[in-house]
Amino acid sequence: MRYTTYSRFVPGAADAVNLQALLDQLGDFLLQSGFQGGDPWSGEDDSQSLDRLREAILKALMESGQLTPEMLKFLRGESTGDPARDEEIARQLAELLDQLVQRLVDEGYLNLGEAPQGQPSHQPMFGPGGQARGAAQQVNFQLTDKGLDFLGYRSLKQLLGSLGKSSFGAHDTPHLATGVEAEAASRPYEFGDTLNLDAAGTLARALARQGLRLPLELEYDDLLVHQADYRSSAATVLMLDCSHSMILYGEDRFTPAKKVALALTHLIRTQYPGDSIRVVLFHDDAEEIPLRALAQAQVGPHHTNTAAGLRLARKILLSQRKDMRQIIMITDGKPSAMPLANGRTYINSMGLDPAILKATFREVAECRRAGIQINTFMLARDRSLVEFVRKVTEICRGKAYFTSPMTLGQFILMDFLKRRTQRVG
Question: Judging by beta carbons within 10 Å of its beta carbon (0-12, 13-18, 19+), is residue 57 exposed, middle or buried?
Answer without folding.
Answer: buried
